[in-house]
Specification:
Layout lengths: L9 H18 L13 H7 L4 H14 L3 H17 L7 H18 L2
Helix pairs in contact: 4-5
Amino acid sequence: MDDNIKTKSSKEMKDEVQRAREIQNKRYEDEEISTNGALSTRLMKKYIKLDKNVKALGQKAFDKYNFSVRSYNKIIKMSRTIADLENSENIEAKHLLEAIRYRSLDDKYWSV
């Protein structure tokens, strides 16, 4: 096992999730939703801003993996959640890449 990898206890993970949920509840307090997963396309445009480098990375992944628009939107929402778990105001490339990996695994193991 890599000594540089920090493992988290269940309590630490629970605390991170609770903190992320609080961030999302506050962010969407004026909307009829409370989580990133419930974002409509209109609300995504309002609440999710990607810098040009992250946007370009997303476009490359979209083209390379032939994601549908629906899949791509799910990846962006997941990226926002990963950023919230890290208490990051902005979605960074590492958040997007992690979400893409999860989506690729989902397609690999759950598609019929």
